Amino acid sequence: MLHFIYIIAFTVLAVLAIANMFRNLMTLGIESQRSYSPANSMYGRSPYGASKQTVPHPELLDEFGNIVNEPLLIMRSITVEDAREKLDALYDASPGSSNVSSEPREEL
After folding, report:
1. Beta carbons within 8 Å of 74's beta carbon, 6+ residues apart
2. CA-based Rg of the chain, rounded to a whole angstrom?
3. How confident is the model at residue 17 (pLDDT cuts 50, 70, 90)?
4. Does pTM top 0.70 for this prediction?
5. In the chain, how many domains are there?
6. Is 104 part of a structural domain of the chain?
7. Is 48 helix (H, G, I), strand (E, B) or coil?
8. Which stretch of 71-80, 81-90, 96-105 has the lowest confidence by average pLDDT?
C-alpha cells in the first residue's frame, strides 16, 4: 500500500514538473517574439528629450574602436608547432619558471 502511495505521489510530481516546463517554454516563446519599442519603455527615453544612442560591448570592437564584422566563435587554425612555441613562450615568461631548464624537454 505504501508503494502505491509513493508511485501516485511521484507521478503527480512528474506531471506537475512537465506541465510547468511546457508553460515556461510557451512563456519564453511568447516573450522572445514580443518587440519592445524604445518609445514605450522607461529606459528608452532620455530626460532631456535626446535620443539614446546604444553603445556596443567592448568585446565587439577592434583595437581602433570599430565594430568587428567577423564571426566571433570561429577559431583561427594554427599549426601544432606554432601552438607549442606560444605555449613555451608563455611558460618561459611565467614568474615561477627559470630561463635555464634543468630537465631536457622531450620532443614528440
Report:
1. none
2. 29
3. very high
4. no
5. 1
6. no
7. coil
8. 96-105
Q: Quick check: helix, strand or coil at residue 69?
A: coil
- On whether the CB atoms of residues 68 and 62 are closer than 8 A, the answer is yes
- Find out whether 38 and 52 touch, Cβ atoms under 8 Å: yes
In a domain, 14, yes or no: yes
Per-residue pLDDT at 56: 81
Domain that holds residue 18: 2-46+56-93
State the CB neighbour count (10 A cutoff) for residue 86.
Answer: 11
Name the H helices within the chain: 2-33, 80-93
In a domain, 66, yes or no: yes
Question: What is the amino acid identity at position 102?
Answer: S
Quick one: cell of 49?
Answer: 528629450
